[in-house]
Amino acid sequence: MGHTGAFHLETCARPNILSLQPYRCARDDYKDNGTNILLDANENAYGPALDVQANLRILETNGSTGPSNLEIDLLGLNRYPDPHQAELKQQLCRLRNLHTHTAKDLSPEHLFVGVGSDEAIDALLRCFCVPGRDKILTCPPTYGMYAVSAQVNDVEIVKVPLDPARGFQLQPEAINATLSSDPSIKLVYVTSPGNPTANLLSKSDVQQILEHPTWNGVVILDEAYIDFSPDGASLAEWVTEWPNLVVMQTLSKAFGLAGIRLGAAFASPEVARLLNNLKAPYNISSPTSALAIAALQPKNLAVMRSNRAKIMEQRQRLLHELPRISRIGRFLGGTDSNFLLVEILDTPKTQGGRPSNESAMALYEGLAETRGVVVRFRGKEMGCEGCLRITVGTSEEVDRLLAETRSILDSDHSKYDSCAKKEEEAKERGANGVIA
Fold it and tell me: Can you tell me the distance from the alpha carbon of 274 to that of 31, in angstroms, rounded to the nearest whole number?
């Protein structure tokens, strides 16, 4: 066992960290083996929003009529990257300065960039919440990383669920009442489009929370999937009007750049300054910065929009064809993202089938373990009984998903429903615990 002396991990480490359940991500259960169809992590199946030629040379437009090679200075990798990322921030501002919600302009002073949105989630907690004292408010069903980061920072979570009867919209009156009754709540995390609900939140509902007359806190709007929504839906430029609003975005989804881990938080200059003051000094690598800047050039934005159009076409196809399968129920939430939330029924619709976690779990396992198609079980989320979350893939991937789903659900499924109840519950909790 080695020398221990006076050291005891159980009493030395923080209790909230000792009890922390590790982040379970999409590839923990089912790996990318080169043959699996991965429709579980809301990645962009069409690849990066970069003009990549057959020889894998990456091209960008630099103001001239023709393309030029993207330069990643390999010999410069012995030097630390730009700690301020001014050029990248300027490109992000150019993308979002649409003047849909305000006449004011975003500037680099409104931005924090980090390692995915997760760095911003954690930085905001560290910035505004005193461990063991302050709280955050979330609106389930929602992205699981808010809870993980809160536990790491020893911050309690207060929950006001979304309203399933209104298509998983916010309940602003209930949220404001909760904020009025508990001044220790410092942050409200909401997601638009929602995950796993895929719906845009009402702008007026968000504004109602921002206008709370006595609450001294910050509303954080997570817009990871905003580029799959109608043009002008982003409220990023609204941070110029509301000093208590932060809008988070990422290049992982519509831009197809999950591998570079680049996220951004738009905020008032004062809040952005706090976030930048507490970050690690060189948090964005030079290759990440170069790829992100390239993706934001007009030529590559055209690639992103072309890929997005293909995804939206396949999304419409799923909306049309999935309900033709006998045990597919309703689509819940919305259609503003690159995934759909759909009910799986215990018996066919014509026989009065009801949403069933057992049936959803059986389909989830059947697809992944015997057909090589990986989706996401979400039946344990609030208001999501019997639901799978399905990422929209390529035309060929959707072909395969539809065929394999039909094959499993139209067959005798009794073998999938024979687990003991406790075993079934444990499997459902495990599958639902994956965060993405």
Answer: 38
Give the whole-angstrom CA distance, residue 112 versus residue 246.
Answer: 10
Report which of 323, 378, 374, 368 is spatially closest to residue 348, judged by C-alpha positions: 323
Q: Count of alpha carbons within 13 Å of 299, Cβ hemisphere only?
A: 18
> What's the confidence (pLDDT) of residue 68?
44
What SS3 state is found at 205? helix
Strands, E assignment, 268-386: 328-332, 339-344, 373-374, 376-377
Backbone dihedral region for residue 158 (phi beyond 0: left; psi -120 to 50: alpha; all else: beta): beta
Token digits of residue 155: 């911050």
Stated length of the chain:
436
0.90 exceeded by pTM: no
Residue at 302: amino acid letter: A
Task: Judge contact between 394 and 314, C-beta under 8 A.
Answer: yes
- Cα dihedral across residues 84, 88, 90, 96: positive or negative: negative
CA distance 372 to 408: 13
Longest dimension (CA), the chain: 69
The residues, ordered by sequence, that sit 6+ positions from 227 with a Cβ below 8 Å of its Cβ are 253, 254, 255, 304, 308
The rounded percent of the chain whose pLDDT value lies above 70 is 84
Of the candidates 317, 346, 312, 316, the one whose C-alpha atom is nearest the C-alpha of residue 329 is 346
Q: If you ran DSSP here, which 8-state letter would residue 197 be given?
A: T
Nearest to 326 by CA among 342, 347, 343, 340: 347
Q: Which tens digits make up the pLDDT trace of 284-294?
A: 999 999 999 99
For 384, the token pair is 């999501």
- A 10 A CB-CB count for 42 gives 25
- Peptide bond connecting 164 to the previous residue in cis, omega within 30 degrees of 0: no
**Using one digit for the tens of pLDDT, what is the confidence trace for 11-30?**
887 787 777 776 666 556 66
Return d(Cα 219, Cα 6) in angstroms, integer: 45
**C-beta neighbour count of 431 within 10 angstroms:** 22
Q: How far apart, in whole angstroms, are the C-alpha atoms of residue 165 and residue 402?
A: 28
